[in-house]
């Protein structure tokens, strides 16, 4: 009798091995995931740096220098340089060339001067620096230029070029600090200094003199036009009043004449109704007298057999002679 063997595949040992291998793989994957998450959960902030922590896109905290923890995929970090930075006003820092659009200014006594500044600033509030405005540095520069021109324009050229620099710097700094507090863009002014101040070039002076001459010519023309207007307006108003008064007088005269003519016509009409023929004849003769004032009219009814010689004036004048 042949003995039969029954083989089980996989065997019990192999199943146990697969189960153990599966558990090991899960543990490895879990450890790898935890390692990756741990790498993305910690961040380091260097000295002179600050970091804004955003949770779901909203700023929630500011981190200082050191090692910090954040929730992966939920929180993000935006680092901000907290060192003192600066920029020039009136010249190019790389080439040291003057930028006349920024440096050229007019003083209180109407002189022109080139003044160069250097402004230093730092971030005071990282959240407002990142989210209160789109370009805080540009805002600061425009703010500084506005204050510089206003304050330099309140001094004489001698003060700007010589002994008034420190006072001008101080006033400009105070004014910019007040503006930064008002606008609150997350920046603070560290210092602003005058680097150089000198008269502008001869070409620039001539150009500005031409502009100033044109402006004065414009003002003169405007003043002359206003003077001419002020002289002519009263005359024109007086002429208008005279014409209106004359028109009113002429109107009253014409109305009175028309009313008189109507009254006369009504009187004549009443007489005409009483004696139409006589009134017609009288009106005819009166009209002829007006039309031919030098004509002598002789009225003859045509009766009698006597021959009449007309005109009689020539005979009468001849007889007198």
Primary descriptors:
four-stranded antiparallel β-sheet, 19% strand, alpha+beta, 3 domains, three-stranded antiparallel β-sheet, Tetrahydropterin Synthase, Chain A, 9 strands, 9 helices, 321 residues, 55% helix
Describe this structure in words.
- The protein is an alpha+beta fold and 321 residues long.
- It has 3 domains: 12-81, no CATH class; 85-200, 2-Layer Sandwich (Tetrahydropterin Synthase, Chain A), CATH 3.30.479.30; 220-321, no CATH class.
- 55% of the residues lie in helices and 19% in strands.
- The longest helix is centred in the last third of the chain and has 73 residues, at 202-274.
Which SSEs are present, and which pair or pack?
Layout: H1 12-41, E1 42-45, E2 49-55, E3 58-63, E4 66-69, E5 75-81, E6 85-89, H2 100-103, E7 104-106, E8 112-123, H3 126-131, H4 136-152, H5 157-161, H6 165-183, E9 187-198, H7 202-274, H8 276-291, H9 313-320
Antiparallel strand pairs: 1-4, 2-3, 2-5, 6-8, 7-8, 8-9
Helix pairs in contact: 4-6, 7-8
